[in-house]
Amino acid sequence: MWFGVSLGGNLPGTPAAFSNVLRTVESDGCLTVLGVSDVYRTHPFGDASPPYWNQCFVGWTFLGGRAFFQKLECAERRFGRKGKGLLWPRRLDADLLFWHPGGGDLPERVVVPHPRLSLRPVLQLLLGEACRKGGVPFAFSGIPYPPGHPEGPPVPSGFLLFRRFSSACRKDSSA
């Protein structure tokens, strides 16, 4: 199954949590991260909290939907998520953006493609970057073209590149 995930957070330690999640989800060989966007700093979407860091990654797994989602939730809790609440400050929030083909055996509460992806152009841009880097079709997201594509919406404004992603930060230091 192909997947796309967004990572976000607005508390100190968020970028480090992103690196830890990427390293952790790949650690047992059950999934492969193929493309990772850079980390971007964005203004909050509809609230007065501190700016957010955002990143997306895409890949492939042989896990079923429930097992994959459980793995993602465990990584989220391990590296900073302290509860699910709309617009709560957080170190880490991981959202499944797409699961292709189809919804498979995902938990009932999980809707893919993510119901708010079409309303978040910056997230579409990051997902498009991760898809391009990983060779994963962006159309798996349920949106035909990413921002900036000749057939897609314009590139959004109001975000800053925080740091370029380096594949070195995913490597195990003991290897």
Structure commentary:
- The protein has 175 residues and is an alpha+beta fold.
- It has a single domain, classed as Alpha-Beta Plaits, CATH 3.30.70.
- Helix content is 23%, strand content 23%.
- It contains three helices and six strands, in the order E-H-E-E-E-H-E-H-E.
- The chain has helices at residues 14-26, 65-78, 121-134, and strands at residues 2-9, 31-36, 39-42, 52-61, 93-100, 159-163.
- Strands 1, 2, 3, 4, 5 and 6 form a six-stranded antiparallel sheet that branches.
- Helix 1 packs antiparallel against helix 2.
- The radius of gyration is 15 Å and the shape is globular.
- It starts with a strand and ends in a 12-residue tail after the last strand.
- 39% of the residues are buried.
- Residues 165-175 have low confidence and may be disordered.
- It comes from Leptospirillum ferriphilum.
- Its EC number is 2.7.6.3.
- Pathway: Cofactor biosynthesis; tetrahydrofolate biosynthesis; 2-amino-4-hydroxy-6-hydroxymethyl-7,8-dihydropteridine diphosphate from 7,8-dihydroneopterin triphosphate: step 4/4.
Alpha-carbon distance between the two ends:
28 Å
Query: Spans of 5+ residues with little confidence (pLDDT < 50)?
Result: 165-175
CATH superfamily: 7,8-Dihydro-6-hydroxymethylpterin-pyrophosphokinase HPPK
Please, what is the average pLDDT? 82
Oligomer: single chain
GO molecular function, one term: kinase activity
Organism: Leptospirillum ferriphilum
Protein name: 2-amino-4-hydroxy-6-hydroxymethyldihydropteridine pyrophosphokinase
InterPro entries: Hppk (IPR000550), Hppk_sf (IPR035907)
